[in-house]
Amino acid sequence: MSNPSILILPGDGIGPEVMAEVRKVISWFGEKRDLAFDVSEDLVGGCAYDKHGTPLHDDTMAKAQEVDAVLLGAVGGPKYDNLDFSVKPERGLLRLRKEMDLFSNLRPAQCFDALADFSSLKKDVVAGLDIMIIRELTSGIYFGEPRGIINEGNERVGINTQRYTESEIARVARSAFELARKRNNKVCSMEKANVMESGILWRDVVQEIHDAEYPDVELSHMYADNGAMQLVRAPKQFDVIVTDNLFGDILSDAAAMLTGSLGMLPSASLGAPMANGRPKALYEPVHGSAPDIAGQGKANPIACILSFAMALRYSFDQGDEATRLEDAIEAVLAQGARTADLLGNEGETPISTSEMGDAILKALDDSL
Ligand code: IPM
Ligand code: MG
User: Fold this and answer.
1) Would the CB of 93 count as within 6 Å of ligand 1?
2) Alpha carbon 75 to its chain's center
3) What tens digit of pLDDT does each residue of 137-149 get?
4) Cβ–Cβ under 8 Å, residues 77 and 294
5) Which of 32, 247, 258, 363 sits at a 20 to 30 Å CA gap from 94?
6) Phi, psi of 362 (to 5 degrees)
7) What residues contact residue 263 under an 8 Å CB cut-off, 6+ apart?
8) Which sites bind substrate (predicted)?
9) In the CATH hierarchy, which fold is given to the domain comprising 130-257?
């Protein structure tokens, strides 16, 4: 049997430096836990555009389809702001999501005890928070047709289309119910059924799937604007939230900040099972490429390392090893290790990206 395969796409900005820390962690599991992976690396985003004139080369796309999991850093940067829309770095990421059909995007928002003070909300509102946002990732207004900027009379009109089929709603609803059963058995579905037909259909289909297949799970529905308010008012009322592509983009950023820093949040994007039973999968931190701090060793590698923990859990059936890694990160934070994004008081000195990686390796060693 060959080792499971991972394609690493570090991308732009802080992507390469946080991914370097993930590579150390991957090697650690190979050396110390007998969990070896075949790791290859390629380009995505602006760096791919610089080399190939496209943010995702066809060969890279083909590789991504073949491996057991893709780990992505981040894409984009000011250098690429004026590129034509079709070759912007983000298109590389969106093509991966679409062509791998990664319809279920898991974005956990978990508040580590050591960081409860960093949230912009009161400590008791966020302490112990553990929610999971499931964002539909391959449809909706991100991909709907017609789209474009057209001329109408003497002015331009920008057009995007929100479009969801029943089967697209049903499959992401199922993934939310399945996950809820492994957690606190509660799903809240968010849409705008008060103003959008696609929202009415969303609500109906989620309810139908629930009644037919998951009556044991507690289901509620909420308008997405109210959901945004509830997320900052009383986030602990939620367990699993399921929502569409655009609302999920926005609500997951809000949820991320509840935990104190965007530098802490991982994500998994999962599709249908492949022939070997593993789901098509891409793992990436929720944070972006942060060009303002790129290349300075300031970035927090934890979101990217936690994304690898999600890969251990969801692609490689290594839940215990995922927990080992998450516990190591928790221990390092409890000991006071802080990258610059996690500093509260003036006078504290941050550690660098690679020092954080090393501290996590040390905590992993201590776990043996
Ligand atoms: C995200 C990002 C992306 C999105 C961008 C980079 C295309 O904001 O993953 O949340 O809008 O989906
Ligand atoms: Mg986003």
Assistant:
1) yes
2) 13
3) 999 999 999 999 9
4) yes
5) 258
6) -65, -45
7) 285, 287, 299, 300, 302, 303, 339, 341, 342
8) 97, 107, 135, 225
9) Isopropylmalate Dehydrogenase (3.40.718)
| SS3 of residue 171 by DSSP | helix
Sign of CA dihedral 194, 197, 200, 203: negative
Cα angle for residues 289, 11, 351 (degrees, 5° grid): 55
90 lines ligand 1 (CB under 6 A): yes
63-79 mean pLDDT: 97
DSSP character for 243? E
Q: Are strands 266-273 and 104-110 parallel, antiparallel or unpaired?
A: antiparallel
Residue to mutate (ligand 1; options 9, 70, 93; most atoms within 8 A of CB): 93
Tell me the residue type at 275: A
pLDDT of 1 above 80: no
Least confident of 55-59, 92-96, 271-275: 271-275
Instruction: State the pLDDT confidence band at 120, using cuts at 50, 70 and 90.
Output: confident
Quote the pTM value: 0.95
Fold type of domain 1-112+267-368:
Isopropylmalate Dehydrogenase (3.40.718)
